[in-house]
Amino acid sequence: MKSDKKSILILFIIYTIANVFFLINYNGIYWDDWELYDQEYDAVLQMFLQAAGNLGYINTPIRYIIANSGDIGIFLSRVLIFSFIFFSGIFIFKILARLTFISKLERMFVVLFFIIAPLNSAKIALINFQSNLRICIFFFAFYLLSKYLVDEKGKIGFRILLLCLFFISFGTNSVLVFYAIVLLYIFYITYSYENSVLKNIYTFIKTKIDFILLPIIFFVIKSIYFVPSGLSEGYNKINLNNIINLKLYFQTFQSNFIVPIQISFFSMSSVIIILILLLLLLSNLFTRQNNEMHKKDVYLFILGLVIFFLGAFPYIAVGKTPSLGDWASRFQLLLPLGFSFILYYGIQISSNLLNFKEIVKYFVYLILIISFIMFHMKEQIKYNIDWYYQKSIIENFKTNDLIIKNNTFIINNKIKKNLAQNRYVRFYEFNGMSREAFGKDDKFFVNSEKELRRYSSYKNRKQMNFYTWNENEKIYFTIKDNSNLFNQKSIRKNIKYLFRLKYLELFKPLEFKKEISNLISIEFTEK
User: Is the pLDDT of residue 283 over 60?
Assistant: First the structure.
């Protein structure tokens, strides 16, 4: 028990270091958050009713409260999401402890790679709060199930609780497919080698029929009561062509396993990379030894692939392939567990095949841990910077006469490279910034003439932030980067300036507004 506490403490320290810039982002608003922030409750409710049918009555309250409780609500959401992911890792640590063929050291590395996997940067968005909560509920239920299966007698109430928790987690619909790992776990734990495979399957179905039917029952209820409508009609519609397209599966593996590792490696300082390589060479660590290949490692590597594609399949099926770009990392929600198994046991297999010493393997783990930490730091620094550029836009809107006196604008956004993921800023984000600047929603900002024609019909959706707009003369302007203080290549300089802005924001608000407004400039054009 003491050693478990020590392991959990180590995991917590590494995880916290990786997410320190996530936690200090106490007031950032991004992407669809502008549809939640400072909105009327009914407008948010109607949005979620269209997106998820009657499930919207459950989805709305917690998201609305968090997004409309000021900086405290936003900071609380960051702390809770941070906690949800960490506790999910601890539940996995405990579940794997029930599998005696997985050593404690293996559990430690698998869970560590799970909680710091270079995936799901979109967790920063408030709108993704509930998805992360439900994943934590799923792993909590899974952990309780692992305890329940040790002794099931006389625990009907506990069994009902488990079913209820899993049912709640299905509110994030991709969990319906991912739940297959729970059924595989139950089958493995209850398998009797004294009986035939067929007898074991029969016993499994007979004794665990409620667990087997649970996702089917939810799917039936969802098909009747949780149906998207209005502008969300057809949302998440399954496409058979996507399911049978093998190329999508290869692309998914490349985009969500190989690419994140590559990006993470190059996130490290070149000095750190050189030092690690020098240590490897000078220590003569590549000396070979006779290693034994373990079948267990191969099986767990294959299991990792199965878990990975169970997590990716629901998104592939509806045409939302996970990736790191823009906000598509929200579709990586269920990939970290498979990612961690593939990575850890892939390295185990590779080092045994190449007959490397154990210490070489641990150097590889060290490099990966450092690179994943650097990945998260750089990503979250970029999100902090992104928010300050949004704040700069708001301040510039407030003081610009042409923007004050007009209400229809077409923007040429030249600051994308300074934003997280070099992302595309949606029209309703600009409208939200305008609403924040002026306290009213009578202006309409778009990125092109095409968007003006396409989205003007969205006016009656209050959460799009241009509800009282009436079209008049179109004004064209360019948003330019006006600051050399945020450096694309120097993480050290970015951190230094970021902390300066945080200090000013907290203790010198007037100086902060002046400093922040200089980050961008607005230049009006003929067209």
Answer: no
- What pLDDT is stored for residue 304 in this prediction? 96
3-state secondary structure of 226: coil
Tokens 């100086």 locate to: 511
Judged by DSSP in three states, 495 sits in helix
Which has the closest alpha carbon to 286: 294, 277, 295? 277
488 alpha-carbon distance from chain centroid: 23
Dihedral sign from CA coordinates of 408, 412, 415, 421: positive
Distance CA 346, CA 298 (A): 8
The CA distance from 310 to 333, in Å, is: 12
Question: Could you give the CA distance from residue 483 to residue 500 in angstroms, rounded to a whole number?
Answer: 15
Of 329, 389, 455, 429, give the one whose Cα is nearest residue 37: 429
What's the pLDDT at 496?
87
The total number of residues shown for the chain amounts to 527
At residue 491, does pLDDT exceed 90? no
Closest by CA to 381, choosing from 414, 420, 416, is 420
Q: Determine the Cα–Cα distance for residues 498 and 241; give it in Å rounded to an integer.
A: 46
pLDDT tens-digit series, residues 174-221: 999 999 999 999 999 999 889 899 999 999 999 999 999 999 999 999
Calculate mean pLDDT across residues 116-144.
95
Task: Write down the residue that tokens 């739940």 correspond to.
Answer: 179
Name the DSSP letter for residue 35. G
Which of 482 and 114 is assigned the larger pLDDT? 114
More confident residue, 152 or 244: 244
| Cα–Cα dist 411/448, whole Å | 7
> Which string of DSSP letters, residue by residue, matches 111-165?
HHHHHH-S--GGGGSGGGHHHHHHHHHHHHHHHHHHHHTT--TT-HHHHHHHHHH
| pTM (2 d.p.) | 0.92
- Is 412 in contact with 477 (CB distance < 8 Å)? yes
Closest CA to 73 of 26, 19, 131: 26
Q: What is the largest CA-CA distance in the chain?
A: 82
Residue type, 274: I
C-beta atoms surrounding 288 within 10 Å: 10
Mean pLDDT of 370-386: 93
**Nearest Cα to Cα of residue 375 among 485, 274, 259, 486:** 259
Percentage above 70 pLDDT, the chain: 94
- CA distance readout (Å), 186 to 159, 163, 191, 208: 13, 13, 8, 8
- Look up residue 432 and give its two tokens: 């939200």
Please, which residues bridge with residue 481 across strands?
520
Which of 109, 209, 102, 97 is closest to 146 using CA atoms? 97
Of all residues in the chain, the percent with pLDDT exceeding 90 is: 69
Count the neighbouring beta carbons within 10 Å of the beta carbon of residue 100: 6
